[in-house]
Amino acid sequence: MEGQRLREFGLCEGASVEALHHGGLLGRGPLAVKIGRMTVAMRRNHAAAVEVSTGPQEAQV
Fold first, then answer.
1. 53, exposed or middle or buried, with CB in 10 Å at 0-12, 13-18, 19+?
2. DSSP label at 7?
3. Contact of 9 with 40, CB cutoff 8 Å
4. Whether the model pTM is above 0.70
5. Where does residue 10 rank: exposed (0-12), middle (13-18), buried (19+ CB within 10 A)?
6. Rounded to the nearest 10 degrees, how much is the dihedral formed by the CA atoms of 45, 49, 7, 15?
7. Among candidate residues 21, 16, 11, 18, the one with its CA nearest the CA of residue 41
8. Is the Cα dihedral 13, 19, 24, 27 positive or negative?
9. Keywords, A to Z (predicted)?
10. Residues 6+ apart with CB under 8 A from 47
11. pLDDT for the residue numbered 1
């Protein structure tokens, strides 16, 4: 169920993701991530199930 919801937000292979906030006191709160143009709050256990890797860097002109 949660995976489907995250896909509806645009979290899928190749999506641009940026970490915005790493949780509250002691880092136990939810994470805020930017997926494309949308900001989404995620529970830590859901975020732990997401695999992220860096893509190729854009060429500097």
1. exposed
2. H
3. yes
4. no
5. middle
6. 120
7. 21
8. positive
9. Iron
10. 31, 33
11. 56
